[in-house]
Amino acid sequence: MKDMNTKILIPIFIGIFSLLLFSCNNEEEKATCSADVKVSPINPNGDSELALLMRKMYDDADSIKKLITNNEGNITEEYIKELERIHTAIPTDKKVKTPEFEAYTKLMVEEANALFSNETNKAEGFNSLVNRCVECHQRFCPGPIDKIKKLSLPNSSEGGA
Ligand code: HEC
Questions:
Q1: Is 131 in the pocket of ligand 1 (CB under 6 A)?
Q2: How many domains, in total, are found in the chain?
Q3: Ligand 1 nearest atom to the CA of residue 58, by list position
Q4: 113 lies in which domain range?
């Protein structure tokens, strides 16, 4: 009888233990995601492909913002291709690649295409795109949200004329 009990109890304990480990891990990874950005923009401890891509996306979005502000240009097909690379880029935390994550990526690419064909109010289109970044970040990686929001253009006449 004693043997039976151990045989049943050990797997149960292992089960509970791994559940605990799993939930702790989750917390940790979320924390890493937000901390990384605040501590240093360049993390020497090996950045994921997705993190590097995001950083480039951010810098390029900043350039596009300037083009739109000065009425010198718009989002490019090249930039949209960059956004599409999110689908394949490997993240720090592989668990983020859920169907929900894919859906957010798709919404953002659609918003980028809308801006690409928008000649009337690029500032508004650009801000909608920035909102798509923020939406996914609220769900998966809240750390850089304040930084991303700063990309937004003042919502007035800028894109017009
Ligand atoms: C589909 C979800 C999603 C969308 C959309 C998204 N991000 Fe991210 N972003 C993430 C995730 C997840 C990470 C964490 C990457 C990692 O650590 O592997 C991240 C990381 C970042 C980082 C931090 C990179 C670093 O230095 O470690 C920045 C900055 C960033 N994103 C900016 C943007 C901008 C700008 C946009 C819109 C043009 C955007 N993101 C759209 C999910 C998203």
A1: no
A2: 1
A3: 35
A4: 45-149
